[in-house]
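Saturday, quiet lab. Running sequence design on the structure tokens for the scaffold JK sent over.
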């Protein structure tokens, strides 16, 4: 994967029913191939999903570097995902894609949104803002604040 020429998967895209992990895998693959572009494997969003699953990012990165194909990577993460009850996965997905920045990160988020899509004040989640920045369609929602 070359993230200097393409985008990683959307936060919303699921691998084995879980959001965010596919995006993290894409960034790991790009890093392993020496072309992560502006993306960071093990960024705070990745850390959150790794923590939720109990995955060590270094161990996952080793799997990514040594995998012969994506199926080997997916099989590895599936062992962690399978340990979670379906309800917990669904709750994580729902909360993760709807989580709004707070505190110091809110101002950073608002500044970035004003650069990426100043007319989209309805966009109040990182998942949606990343999709907009990466030229994906984001449905218009009722603005909640700021």
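Result came back. Writing it out in full:
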């Amino acid at each position: 994967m070359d993230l200097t020429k393409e985008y990683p998967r959307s936060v919303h895209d699921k691998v084995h029913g879980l959001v965010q992990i596919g995006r993290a895998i894409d960034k790991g693959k790009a890093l392993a191939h020496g072309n992560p572009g502006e993306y960071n494997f093990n960024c705070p969003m990745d850390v959150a999903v790794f923590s939720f699953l109990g995955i060590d990012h270094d161990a996952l990165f080793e799997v990514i570097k040594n995998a012969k194909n994506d199926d080997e990577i997916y099989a590895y993460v599936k062992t962690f995902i399978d340990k979670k009850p379906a309800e917990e996965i669904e709750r994580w997905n729902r909360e993760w894609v709807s989580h709004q920045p707070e505190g110091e990160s809110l101002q950073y988020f608002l500044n970035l949104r004003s650069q990426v899509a100043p007319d989209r004040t309805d966009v109040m989640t990182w998942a949606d803002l990343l999709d907009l920045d990466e030229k994906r369609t984001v449905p218009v929602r009722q603005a909640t604040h700021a």
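Notes for JK: The helical segments are 21-32, 44-53, 57-66, 70-81, 86-98, 103-116, 126-133. The radius of gyration is 16 Å. Ask whether to fix the surface positions before the next round.
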